[in-house]
C-alpha cells in the first residue's frame, strides 16, 4: 500500500510582496535619528543634572552614571555619523549593539520599580536591537 500525498494549490493565495530595500533604509534612518536624539539628550543630562539628584533614587555609583552618559553620547553619534559621512559604516551596528546592552541594563535596573518603569527602556532596547540587526545585514 503506497502512501500518496496530494498537494493542493490555491490560485488565489499569493505571497506578500517584499518590502523594497529603499523603504527599509528610510525607516531605519528615521529610527536611528530618533534614537540618536534620545541618547544625546539622556547622555547630556547625566552631565548637566546635579550629582545628588542623579544618585538620589539610583543604586548606581556616580562614576558609573557618568560612564553610561559618555557611552550614550558616543553611541548616539555612532548611530548617525558613519552613515552621514559614509565612512566606516560598519560602526553603526556596533553602536546600536552597545546601546542595546545599555538598555538591557536599564530594564534590569528599572524593573524592580515596576513594569511600567521598564517599558520605555525595553522598547528603546528593541529598537536599538532592530537597528543593529538590520544595519549589520546592510553593511555586509
Overview features:
140 residues, mainly alpha, 5 helices, globular
Question: What's the Cα radius of gyration?
Answer: 21 Å
Shape: globular
Distance between the termini: 51 Å
Helix content: over 70%
Give the class from helix and strand content and strand pairing: mainly alpha
Q: What is the mean predicted local confidence, pLDDT?
A: 87
**Helical segment count:** 5
Describe the fold and architecture.
With 140 residues, this protein is an all-alpha fold. The chain has one domain (21-139). 73% of the residues lie in helices and 0% in strands. The protein contains 5 helices and no strands. The protein has helices at 21-48, 51-55, 62-85, 91-110, 115-139. α1 (21-48) packs antiparallel against α3 (62-85), α3 (62-85) runs antiparallel to α4 and α4 (91-110) runs antiparallel to α5. The radius of gyration is 21 Å and the shape is globular. It starts with 20 loop residues before the first helix and ends with a helix. The mean pLDDT is 87.
Amino acid at each position: 500500500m503506497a502512501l500518496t500525498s496530494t498537494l493542493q494549490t490555491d490560485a488565489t493565495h499569493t505571497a506578500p510582496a517584499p518590502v523594497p530595500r529603499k523603504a527599509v533604509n528610510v525607516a531605519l534612518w528615521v529610527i536611528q535619528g530618533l534614537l540618536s536624539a534620545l541618547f544625546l539628550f539622556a547622555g547630556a543630562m547625566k552631565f548637566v543634572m546635579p550629582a545628588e539628584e542623579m544618585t538620589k533614587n539610583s543604586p548606581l555609583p556616580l562614576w558609573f552614571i557618568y560612564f553610561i552618559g559618555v557611552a550614550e553620547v558616543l553611541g548616539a553619534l555612532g548611530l548617525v555619523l558613519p552613515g552621514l559621512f559614509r565612512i566606516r559604516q560598519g560602526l553603526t551596528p556596533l553602536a546600536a549593539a552597545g546601546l542595546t546592552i545599555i538598555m538591557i541594563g536599564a530594564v534590569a535596573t528599572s524593573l524592580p520599580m515596576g513594569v511600567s518603569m521598564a517599558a520605555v527602556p525595553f522598547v528603546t532596547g528593541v529598537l536599538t536591537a532592530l537597528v543593529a540587526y538590520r544595519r549589520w545585514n546592510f553593511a555586509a
